[in-house]
Design brief:
Helix content: 10-25%
Number of helices: 5
Strand order of the largest sheet: 6-7-8-3-9
Oligomer: single chain
Distance between the termini: 34 Å
Strand content: 25-35%
CATH topology: Rossmann fold
CATH architecture: 3-Layer(aba) Sandwich
Structural class: alpha/beta
Mean pLDDT: 95
Number of strands: 9
CATH class: Alpha Beta
C-alpha cells in the first residue's frame, strides 16, 4: 500500500489549515507533528477519508491497483480521543460489532481479546460507563488488532496511565512492517525516534 498526496490543501472559512501538501507514504511509521492547532488531526482525517480536501488529491494504491477513496475504509483503522464509541454496548458487543467489519490480525485469538485489552474485569459494563483511560485503550485495541494496511492514531496516549502506556508500546511493537502507520502528536514520547517526521507548520507559512 502507498498513499500519495498532490497539492493537498484544506481550508476552513478563510483560514488555510495546510496547503500544497505533497508526499508519498510507504509502509512504516510516520509522525505528523506540529504545535496545538497546527492541523494534525485535520490532515489525518483527510488522509483517512473522513474530511474532503479543499483542493488537491489523495491516491491510494495496492501494488498497481488504485483504490477508490469510497472504499479506503476497508483498508484502515483509526483511534483518536475525539472518536466516539457506541456507549450503549457492552465490551463483548463492541468487539463483536467492530470485528464484523474488520478481520482480526493473524495470530490473535478472538476469545482472548478482552484479556489482550486488559479489560476482562469490565466485560459486563456498558462502554459508556468506562473511564476515559479504558475507552482510549479500547479504541487503540480496535485499531491495533485489526488486519489492515493503514493505522491512524491521533494523540494515542491521551488519558492513559503509566501501565496503559506500557501496554500501548507492547502492542505497537507488534504492528506488521508492511503497515503504514500515521501518528498525530506533538509529544515525542508517542512515536518511535525512528519515525519519519512531517511538521505541518511547513505547509501553512505564507498563506492567508
Amino acid at each position: 500500500m502507498t498513499v500519495t498526496t498532490e497539492s493537498l490543501s484544506k481550508r476552513f472559512n478563510r483560514e488555510w489549515i495546510f496547503r500544497d501538501f505533497n508526499h508519498t507514504f510507504q509502509p512504516g511509521i510516520h509522525a505528523v507533528t506540529g504545535p496545538n492547532g497546527s492541523g494534525k488531526s485535520t490532515l489525518l482525517q483527510v488522509l483517512w477519508g473522513q474530511l474532503p480536501a479543499t483542493s488537491g488529491m489523495v491516491r491510494y494504491k495496492q501494488g498497481e491497483v488504485v483504490i477508490p477513496i469510497e472504499d479506503i475504509y476497508k483498508h484502515l483503522s483509526f483511534a483518536a480521543p475525539y472518536i466516539d464509541l457506541m456507549d450503549e454496548l457492552t465490551l463483548p458487543e463492541m468487539l463483536k460489532f467492530h470485528f464484523s467489519f474488520k478481520k482480526l490480525r493473524d495470530g490473535i485469538d478472538p476469545g482472548n481479546l478482552m484479556d489482550m485489552l486488559e479489560l476482562s474485569h469490565a466485560k459486563n459494563k456498558q462502554v459508556g460507563h468506562f473511564s476515559s483511560g479504558m475507552k482510549q485503550r479500547l479504541k487503540l485495541g480496535l485499531a491495533l488488532f485489526s488486519d489492515v494496511k493503514m493505522i491512524f492514531m491521533d494523540e494515542p496516549t491521551t488519558n492513559l496511565d503509566k501501565e496503559s502506556v506500557t501496554w500501548y508500546w507492547k502492542h505497537f511493537g507488534q504492528i506488521s512492517p508492511e503497515t503504514i502507520v500515521f501518528i498525530g502528536s506533538n509529544h515525542e514520547s508517542e512515536y518511535p525516534a525512528t519515525a519519519a517526521k512531517i511538521n505541518l507548520s511547513d505547509y501553512k507559512q505564507g498563506y492567508k
